């Protein structure tokens, strides 16, 4: 089993704004994709992320602990993603909210997984920018990293 | 065992410029750290990368196949890095040179590994920018991703 791991630090006095950016449609639409729908605030909720024209991801919210953790399970999307989990752990370190990110449960380290790893890193920088400056780079104005977008 | 994986596509007609950026001191200094010394052109060579004031990495060049692959082994640096390998596979896909990156052999998925994963993604974007525009963002003007730089 292979995982995608990332760590960013968001300059903000408490984890509150990062947590909001992970649990509200407005927040998620500000850094991942503007085409976000659903309810990310509580366990049992469902979120739909779309990236026209190529598709997207449906997530089940598995756990939410305000300011500390958000956990999603992928219920629909590319077959490599279905059944994987996306785990966000937050803690405060001085002036920074630290985000420890894990996209776990990939069956094989396929080329698409390499792509998603780099793309997640780029979107985490978008999340950081959203909280620090009020402006992220969600799809469709996300940073292009390759021929696969 | 856990690996760091990434994939970027560099808009360039052949892998030649990306290969140069991975095997020459001038190239490496243009996207990773300006403080690069050694000889990266052939197996058996040694490369020293420094990031003042925090240290750096010494690499042994294990394999070089022009336009196709570069493989390094970490011989000195942070203890989590020593003995790991950094593998660069290149292939052409239309207008893009695809870089498949693997930093393998980490013993544990420690917090520092999460950081290095995001940081590698950011440096791969610097490599892409260097080849596409002539300008990368090597240390010390690298993109800050957190309190750990």
Automatic annotation (TrEMBL), chains A, B:
Residues 14-132 form the Activator of Hsp90 ATPase homologue 1/2-like C-terminal domain. InterPro entries: ASHA1/2-like_C, START-like_dom_sf. CDD domains: SRPBCC_CalC_Aha1-like (cd07814). It comes from the Bacteria. Belongs to the AHA1 family. This is SRPBCC domain-containing protein. The lineage of its organism: Bacteria, Bacillati, Actinomycetota, Actinomycetes, Kitasatosporales.
């Amino acid at each position: 089993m292979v995982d995608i791991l990332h760590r960013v630090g968001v300059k903000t006095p408490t984890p509150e704004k990062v947590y909001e950016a992970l649990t509200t449609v407005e927040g998620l639409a500000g850094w991942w994709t503007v085409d976000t729908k659903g309810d990310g605030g509580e366990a049992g909720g469902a979120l739909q992320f779309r990236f026209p024209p190529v598709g997207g991801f449906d997530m089940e919210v598995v756990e939410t602990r305000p300011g500390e953790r958000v956990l999603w399970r992928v219920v629909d999307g590319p077959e490599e993603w279905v059944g994987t989990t996306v785990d966000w752990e937050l803690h405060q370190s001085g002036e920074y909210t630290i985000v420890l990110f894990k996209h776990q449960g990939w069956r094989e380290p396929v080329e698409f997984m390499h792509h998603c790893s780099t793309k997640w890193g780029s979107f985490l920088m978008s999340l950081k920018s959203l909280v620090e400056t009020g402006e992220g780079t969600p799809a469709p104005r996300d940073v292009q990293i390759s021929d696969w977008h």
